[in-house]
Amino acid sequence: MATDPPLIAFDAVTKSYGTGEALVHALAGVDLRIDEGEFVAIMGPSGSGKSTCMNIIGSLDTPSSGSYRFKGVDVGTLNRDQLALLRRHYLGFVFQGFNLLARTTAVENVELPLIYRGMRAAERRERALQALESVGLADRATHTPNELSGGQQQRVAIARAIVTDPYVLLADEPTGNVDTKTSVAIMELLARLNADRGITILMVTHEPDMAEYAQRIIQFRDGLIDSDARNGKVSA
Amino acid sequence: MIYETLKLALQAIRRNVLRSFLTLLGIVIGVGAVIAMVTIGNGTTAKIEEQMSKLGSNLLFVIPGQLGPRRASATAQPFDARDVDALRDQLRNVQAVAPVSSSSKTIVFGSENRSVTVIGTDNGYFTTQALDITDGRQFLDSELRGGQAVCLIGETVREKLFGSLNPVGATIRVDTVSCDVIGLLAAKGQSGFGQDQDDVVLMPLRTFQRRLAGNSDIGRIYVSAATKDETAKVQKDIEWLLRERRRITAGKDDDFAVADMQQIISAQTATTSSMTILLGAVAGVSLLVGGIGIMNIMLVSVTERTREIGIRLAIGATENQVLMQFLVEAVVLSLIGGVSGVVLGLGLAGTAVGLMRIPFILDADIVLLAFGFSALIGVVFGYFPARRAAHLNPIEALRHE
């Protein structure tokens, strides 16, 4: 056994919604290990459980049964405030719909997670600008989301996710709402963050082209892992 | 963090200026009404007290019936000239006694006419009311005895009827009686009850009784004691004398009242304070409605911003932080309402006070109270929506369109 517990460990995790006849098993007993530094693509048809899996990893949702341990800590035992702190200090989220605050400038959006950390304004601003710089949007800092293209908005969202130096970046269909060319730019950005900064990346996608950027591809089907393979095409 | 939360609240309020403004109106009107009411009430009371004290503390009022809002003066038997004579002859330590009967009549001079208070009295009136004559003279004994048609007029009457003319020596018509003006009274201004004390015509009691009233009733009697210290004793003597004269047997209540200034003031303030309580209750209801308005708008705001709340929860905001965000927003909203209400209330009171010529008395307690109450409303009515926001499930909130 390794001395360090895996970053993410699922043991027989199930998740069901509804009751009686309408009972749906979104996850039907999933075992999963993800180590630090991995770049994992999660694929599968709609309703296969991939998003539910992501939500549980992101501590936005809780398993119906089974255990989820993050760095060895049983997440099931944490209360809502502790879950919020877990998200605040270890996780970063990128959503398909960007989910930036409207009528709020890019730099203010990026600063948001730092506000909840109680960071002082000057330091916050500096780090937010650095994060924007690293996604190539330093010159758009004072633009509001409706003044930015979809690709730019998603890059702002990525900057917001990485400004806290998270262990894990959770990206739920990050290229779902942008065109192919922009998708490539975003995937290259994620790959670079993984390679240069060692951020573990979990990405849900149903585009095989995008999954090719990951080192490991997990296929979901009917609430179970159908296949889990290293991506041969990525040399690293 | 507090600063950030405040900034956030102000941003949210600014995003919906019109909606925030309409929400605030309830609080603004409620707080404004309370402040205006109390300030005007205080001013009125101060003015009444000031004027009463000018009249002197040795003045006693004798009226038929009982003192207070429910006095039965209509059914109580009025006084007559013999009562006044008895008081004048039998009381000791008395400076002056003045019988008074009055009613509202139309007076005419040239093409001008005006409805004024006509008072039938005698020369004791000038002493008891501390009233000066700026031009002309008092009544002559012969005029009083003979009930002759002479009168003195107040400053307002002079101004409205005579303008720049000299009224003394002129003849005016009072109702149906032609009356020679023999004097002009010194201006007294408004009374504490808002009446113009200069809009009066004085004539001999007998003239008033015979030619205007058509009876020999006396509505009230003013008695001024020789000194302040003797007022209480004189009051007792009057009560004893009048019980005797009106044949009230022992054990029965008086059917008249003798009151000094202090008693008149307390009777008046009793009426004023019950009015204040009533109006305060109305203002309180308005504040409650304002609070419900705030709750409504905060609920709308929470629904509208469900997605924003989801984002905040996802990036690590705790329930408490979201709760505080919305609570602070509600409190800031209602405090803005409170401040505007205070400003509005003081503005209204300032204007009213100017018009009513009463002193402007700022009651800091009530300003603080209204202010604190509006903040409390923000907390109470903002708590429920804020809790609802904080308890949202992050995933559902994020999916919300």
Explain what you see.
The complex is a heterodimer of chains A (236) and B (401). Helices cover 33% and strands 26% of the residues of chain A. Chain A is an alpha/beta fold and 236 residues long. In chain A, the strands form 2 sheets. Chain A has a 6-stranded mixed beta sheet, sandwiched between helices. A 4-stranded antiparallel beta sheet of chain A has the order 2-1-4-5, covered by helices on one side. The longest helix of chain A is centred in the C-terminal third of the chain and has 18 residues, at 180-197. Chain A is globular. Chain B has helices at 2-15, 17-55, 81-90, 124-128, 141-146, 155-162, 205-213, 231-245, 261-304, 306-314, 319-356, 364-390, 394-399, and strands spanning 59-64, 94-109, 112-121, 133-136, 150-153, 171-174, 177-185, 200-204, 220-225, 256-260. Chain B is elongated, with a radius of gyration of 32 Å. The two termini of chain B are 29 Å apart. In chain B, 41% of the residues are buried. The mean pLDDT of chain B is 86. The chains are: A alpha/beta (236), B alpha+beta (401). Chain A binds chain B through residues 55, 58, 60-61, 80-81, 84-85, 87-89, 91, 93, 95, 99-101, 103, 112-113, 115-118, 160, 164, and chain B through 1, 4, 15, 307-308, 310-321, 394-395, 398.
